[in-house]
Known about the structure:
Layout: H1 2-39, E1 42-49, E2 52-59, E3 64-69, H2 76-79, H3 81-86, E4 92-98, H4 116-130, E5 136-141, H5 143-154, E6 159-165, H6 173-181, H7 190-200, H8 202-222, E7 239-244, H9 253-261, E8 265-270, H10 277-280, H11 282-294
Parallel strand pairs: 3-4, 3-5, 5-6, 6-7, 7-8
Antiparallel strand pairs: 1-2, 2-4
Amino acid sequence: MSNTRTMYAQFASVLCKIVKSGSGSVMRIRQLSTTANKAREMEERKVKVGDTEINYARVGTGDHPVLLLPGALGTIWTDFRPQMENLNAEKLTVVAWDPPGYGKSRPPDRTFPDDFFQRDAAWAHNLMQTLGYSKFSLIGWSDGGITSLLLAATYPDSIRKMVVFGANAYIHPDEIKIYESVRDINKWSEKMRTPMIQVYGEDYFKKTWSNWIDGVLRLYEKQNGDLCKQVLSKIRCPTLIIHGARDAMVLPEHPQYLKQNIADSKLHIFEKGAHNLHLRYPEEFNSLVTDFLVDQAKL
């Protein structure tokens, strides 16, 4: 009988320890979950920047702010959903914007004066200053990559690091033919066309896309194809240049040119990647970019 009582007491003691340990583990898991949930809380709103209302989204609690800059007619959610949802929100504070005239940053309608890339760079810089970020990093895709190059050259003291992909400092004559070949949105694939029509409606999308091509062709004629070649030497931040080997919009000479003309730069080629490599291979892209931003030595 005494042996039974002893065994019961030992069992009760062990069970009590397990329960106590388990509840502590549950508490720690809850705390970690709460921290992770807080980091992943997304906000999206408009803010007045000068006399322009700009729509932005923000996620993360990290001490390294990063601005995502979309491509032509691109928005936060058409161009960067996998990044907004999956970039490391504990190490980074991720901000993405709809450039004025795109997405929810309307009205006004989008225009393409000769300095529209420089104008976007100033708007983007002023947006981050308005949000309280005096120094931040950039992730720019396509047109957003060109804007990033100009932003980093114009405001070097504001930029920590920069990632550009699908970007070019000049327009090659062959690319004029590429742009003209995609002017007609009816020739786009359904997968590419539908999200844009959902954002803009067919008329605004068709008009604005055609205006973008006209604007780029005008820059090609007026500036002999030069978009930002002359300012690359002013870029001082560590820069990661990413290119998809199967990019049909940007010729492979462009990332090489950027690498040769940006002092502290590295080049990474996605062999299977096309122009939208960050959407097609988001896990690999997000990991590469986070490693670069958080600890460049890991590259």
